[in-house]
Amino acid sequence: MKAFAPGSVTAVFAPTESGDESRGASMAIEDGIVANVQTAGETEIVLDGEATDFEPVEGVLAELGVSARVELDAAIPIGCGFGASGAATLATAISANEVFELGHSQDKLVGFSHVAEVEAGTGLGDVFIQSAGGLLMDGGSGRKRWEPTDAVEYVSFGGMSTSDALGDEELMARVRTVGGRTLRSFPDEPSLERVIRDSWAFARELELPTGRVEAAVREVESEGGVASMAMLGETVFAVGVDDIFPNRTNVSHHGSQLL
């Protein structure tokens, strides 16, 4: 049984004081991960044809109380700021729920996936965006959702360790302050262009961009577009340009689903 979950790109985030959730502005994209779950005597994870360890996927299966072979087909880079671990975990949970006839609601599956991500240190809320689709923003007064139609281009130069970043208390304290201020500054219905522009200011204030990221953003700006860095990865995403970057996608309005 196959299920799909879109990738997600976080533009701005601010961890809550508890450290197990975050507020932010993020969008789901049509590129994502397909999970094919099959019954098995012991859990085995295969990513793009190769056996691998995938802690949050293993964690959500354990939470569901099942063992399975999970074949993951990724159309997004892993560990580069696209919420790949969340997409893999959520798609696995949705597929396993069907295969094993567990009867859990979508909200319950999202909750299980979120806990698995937090415990693995791989995410603080990607699965909520990936379940709902669209552009989601939460500045502290509840989630708001839009369905932008902008085409999104992106390029990835490599990954950053999400677990290391989330475990860096000094960095997360700065992110909480700067991210909270940025989120509060947004109007009630910001355009995707506005979100990305403010995201870039957020990233620079935190001194996160690498030289390659800065050069890519300058290239987009020279062509009249706006760009920023995905949180957290050495990845640049942009709107308002054509054929600047090798990858082009759209905001996913549908979110995760069985296939």
Short description:
By secondary structure, the protein is of the alpha+beta class.
Textual characterization of the structure:
This protein has 259 residues and is of the alpha+beta class. It has one domain: 2-Layer Sandwich (Ribosomal Protein S5, domain 2). 37% of the residues lie in helices and 31% in strands. The chain has 8 helices and 12 strands. It has helices spanning 55-64, 84-99, 106-120, 126-132, 162-166, 169-185, 192-205, 211-222; strands at residues 2-15, 22-39, 44-47, 50-52, 68-74, 135-138, 144-146, 151-159, 226-229, 233-239, 247-250, 257-258. A hairpin with a 3-residue loop joins strand 9 (226-229) and strand 10. Helix 1 (55-64) packs parallel to helix 2 (84-99), helix 2 packs across helix 4 (126-132) and helix 3 (106-120) runs antiparallel to helix 4 (126-132). It is globular. The relative contact order is 0.21.
List keywords for this structure.
259 residues; alpha+beta; Ribosomal Protein S5, domain 2; globular
